[in-house]
Write a structure and sequence with these properties.
By secondary structure, the protein is α/β, with parallel strands linked by helices. The protein has helices at about 50-65, 75-85, 90-100, 165-170, 175-195, and strands at about 20-25, 30-35, 40, 70, 105-115, 120, 125, 130-140, 145-155. Helix 2 (about 75-85) packs across helix 3.
Length: about 200
């Protein structure tokens, strides 16, 4: 079945990206933030192309760097420090990385699904689908203080004339990179708000 660009009036949906957030009550203040390289989730099972972690990683660093709540540790400096940290769980390494860099915390992300649309911006047989999990681990800790999940498959536009996707990208089918960027920007914006400083006006 091919989904085209026919749009029709339907029920109104929220224009907020579908991000599920959980956080502990005593979130620490984050003034210096390290960002770990993005990796596929253990549950990805071949649903993540080899180039996706680097692409998502760049988007994550860019989104974090736009915020005024914190300063972001240089990516090369973070990578060099990470290379000297022994293998362990993602959470444990994230906490060790922040401590090593004298940052207040580390933002990490894993990708469970990064499936490209089959078709074009104007018609698809399969829409793009993305699932990215985010976590913030304070320096020296081994458990996340904040977690977020962004899992979404773009719906047919005929169901959702006033949808987020139409508002953000116009009446078209988004590519995975576009879909991912919307969730990354929202996750970072929500994290910046949670650690006590209003998000940057430059962030959508």
């Amino acid at each position: 079945m091919v989904f085209g660009l026919v749009v029709a009036a339907g029920c109104s949906r929220a224009l907020t990206p579908p991000l599920t957030v959980s956080a502990r009550h005593d979130l620490p203040s984050i003034r210096t933030l390290a960002v770990m390289p993005v990796s596929p989730s253990p549950a990805s099972a071949g649903n993540v192309p080899a180039e996706a972690p680097a692409l998502v990683g760049r988007m994550l660093v860019e989104a974090a760097s736009r915020q005024t709540a914190w300063s972001v540790v240089d990516v090369k400096q973070a990578q060099a420090a990470l290379d000297s940290i022994p293998a362990d769980s993602l959470e444990s390494r994230a906490g060790s990385l922040a401590a090593r860099l004298r940052a207040d915390g580390t933002l990490a992300a894993t990708i469970a699904v990064y499936r490209e649309r089959v078709g074009s911006a104007y018609g698809v047989t399969e829409p793009a689908s993305v699932s990215i999990q985010f976590l913030l681990v304070p320096a020296g800790e081994k458990q996340p203080a904040w977690k977020a999940d962004y899992t979404v498959t773009q719906e047919p536009l005929a169901y959702n004339l006033r949808s987020l996707w139409v508002a953000r990208g116009g009446p078209r089918w988004l590519a995975t990179d576009d879909l991912a960027r919307i969730g990354i920007d929202e996750a970072v914006r929500r994290l910046a708000a949670a650690v006590g400083t209003p998000p940057s006006a430059n962030t959508p």
